[in-house]
Amino acid sequence: MNKPIVSLRGLKRSFEQGGQRIDVLRGVDLDIQPGEIVALLGPSGSGKSTMLQAVGLLEGGFEGSIAIAGERAEKLPPDGRTRLRREHLGFVYQFHHLLPDFDATENVVMPQMIAGTDRETALERAQSLLTSLGLGHRLTHRPSQLSGGEQQRVAVARALANQPTLVLADEPTGNLDETTSDTVLGQFLELVRGEGSAALVATHNERLASRMDRVVRLHDGILA
């Protein structure tokens, strides 16, 4: 078996609220193999987003070990975690968070140029991704000119723009109607598999989770 792209050991996260300690994660262990798409299933408030923030190296305050591509993130300084995130991770959120003053192509070009890709290469990559998601006729449309499903597909293309080894998706179709959700998720899964990326997808939807390679359930702060 390949070395896991993600390895979590004893991951814990607690918060203080109203003078009380709330244990959101109570010792999570998880390995995700390269190219594997894992559904993180659990009801709202179960800690799915907190776990994705941990894996995404987006905030501190966690206990335990987080290894990305074999590198122990908790041992790195802030700039080292930023490098690890830039080199290996892509993100899709429930709300697209597109830049409103940029068109679809520019929204996908931007993260590539930040990573040092030349504009011509970035533009070619952006157009290819958007076309594969059925947006070849919407390349120059701004977010306000796109439907909710189209906006989320642009967000998917943006997440995959820098060819991440792992995509983290937090309820990526939770803001869409059922028909559009099914379509966007299908395109997301097809594109992630085609790119050879792994993915950890948080959802509360059993039916959507069943379309992924493996389902893990977050309950009472641990995985079942």
UniProtKB/TrEMBL annotation:
Origin superkingdom: Bacteria
Keyword presence, Zinc-finger: no
SUPFAM superfamilies membership: P-loop containing nucleoside triphosphate hydrolases
One Gene Ontology cellular component: plasma membrane
Entry keyword set: ATP-binding, Cell inner membrane, Cell membrane, Membrane, Nucleotide-binding, Transport
Every ABC transporter domain range: 6-224
CDD domains: ABC_MJ0796_LolCDE_FtsE
Protein name from the UniProt record: ABC transporter ATP-binding protein
